[in-house]
Design a protein that fits this description.
With 297 residues, the chain is an alpha+beta fold. It has helices at residues 17-26, 71-83, 101-110, 123-134, 157-172, 233-245, 276-282, 286-296; strands spanning 5-9, 30-34, 38-40, 49-51, 54-55, 61-66, 87-89, 118-121, 139-142, 151-153, 177-180, 187-194, 197-205, 226-227, 250-257, 264-270. Keywords: ATP-binding, Nucleotide-binding.
Length: 297
C-alpha cells in the first residue's frame, strides 16, 4: 500500500488544487489542507494532532508548501510528525524562524559556494563604506529576503540620502540589511530543484542590465525569457550544492554569470519559490514533479 501524503499551507488550500490534480493523474493518495484546519484535544494522556479531523500520524509524508504567518501551527505539526516518525519537508529553519539572508550567505560561503562579495552591518556603515568595500553600484538588500521588493542599487547621491533615511527608520524597528558587489550580469537564471535533481530552468533579464550593456544601432539588446535546455553542467553543480547547503529538498536557486569577470554566483536559495514562470516557459508541471518525489520517499 502506498503511503498517504499531506500537503499543507498557510492561507487558503485552494492554492493547492494543482497538487490534487497532479496526484489524480499519477494515482497517488494525497490530501491538501490549510494550517487553520489543525486541532487537538488533550484527554486522558492521549494526544492526537488532527487536520480536518484526521490524525496527522496517518500520513507517511508531509510537505509544507508555505508557512506565512502560521509559524506556530507549522512548528506544532512538525514536532508531532517527527515524534511519529513521519518525513516532513521543508522545515529546516522553522525552529529559528525563516533563515535570514545574512546567515544563508554565510553558510553558502563557508561551504565553498561562490556568492558576491558581501558586507553585513549597520545602515550607516553600509552607506559610508559600501563603495570602498564593494565598488560602484553596490546592491543593498534586506535580510528578510522578501523577493525584489527589498533590493536597491543607487545611481545618485539624492537617491542614496532618501533610501538611507528610510532604511535607518526600518533598522530602528529591528530590520537588518546587507550589501553586495554589483554583478555585471544581463541575465538571471532560476533553477528549480526537487530532491537531487534540477527539473527545470529558465532565464530572465536582470533589472539593472541597462547600466552596462552597450546599445546596438541605438537599441538596447532584448533580454531573453526562455527555458534553459540543456542545463549547463557547472550551473547544475553549484545549484545542487547550494540547495544541499540550505538543507532544502524543494527549492528555487538563482544563478548569475558576471560578464566582466567570468565568475558564476549564487544569488539566492528560496525554500518556497514561485514556479508559474518555470512551468510556463519550460513546459514542466512542477506539481507533478513534486508529487512524484514525495511518493518516492
Amino acid at each position: 500500500m502506498s503511503k498517504q501524503i499531506l500537503v499543507i499551507t498557510g492561507g487558503s488550500k485552494k492554492r493547492l488544487d494543482p497538487f490534487k490534480e497532479a496526484s489524480g493523474r499519477l494515482g497517488v493518495d494525497l490530501t491538501t489542507a490549510s494550517f487553520s484546519e489543525l486541532s487537538y484535544i488533550l484527554n486522558d494522556g492521549n494526544f492526537k494532532l488532527k487536520v480536518n479531523g484526521v490524525d496527522v500520524a496517518s500520513y507517511g509524508v508531509v510537505y509544507i508548501r508555505l508557512v506565512g504567518k502560521r509559524r506556530e501551527d507549522a512548528i506544532l505539526l512538525t514536532e508531532y510528525a517527527k515524534d511519529k516518525g513521519i518525513k516532513v519537508l521543508d522545515t529546516t529553519h522553522l525552529n529559528q524562524g525563516v533563515l535570514p539572508k545574512s546567515l544563508e550567505i554565510k553558510k553558502l560561503f563557508e561551504a565553498g559556494v561562490l556568492v558576491p562579495k558581501t558586507y553585513f552591518g549597520r545602515v550607516l556603515d553600509i552607506f559610508e563604506k559600501g563603495q570602498e568595500v564593494l565598488g560602484k553600484w553596490f546592491v543593498i538588500k534586506s535580510t528578510s529576503g522578501k523577493r525584489s521588493k527589498a533590493v536597491w542599487s543607487l545611481k545618485t547621491k539624492e537617491e542614496a540620502e532618501i533610501l538611507k533615511a528610510d532604511l535607518l527608520k526600518r533598522e530602528e524597528n529591528g530590520e537588518r540589511f546587507f550589501a553586495q558587489s554589483f554583478v555585471y550580469a544581463s541575465q538571471r537564471e532560476r533553477y528549480f530543484v526537487v530532491g537531487d535533481k534540477i527539473v527545470a530552468g529558465i532565464t530572465r533579464p536582470t533589472i539593472w542590465r541597462r547600466r552596462f550593456l552597450e546599445r546596438v544601432n541605438g537599441e538596447m539588446p532584448e533580454g531573453k525569457r526562455e527555458p534553459i535546455v540543456p542545463i549547463p553542467e557547472n550551473d547544475a553543480k553549484i545549484t545542487l550544492s547550494a540547495a544541499r547547503v540550505a538543507s532544502l529538498e524543494i527549492a528555487g536557486v538563482d544563478v548569475v554569470h558576471d560578464e566582466v569577470s567570468g565568475e558564476t554566483f549564487i544569488l539566492e536559495v528560496n525554500s518556497a519559490p514561485r514556479w508559474e514562470g518555470v512551468s510556463h516557459d519550460a513546459g514542466i508541471n512542477i506539481e507533478e514533479e513534486i508529487v512524484k518525489y514525495l511518493a518516492s520517499l
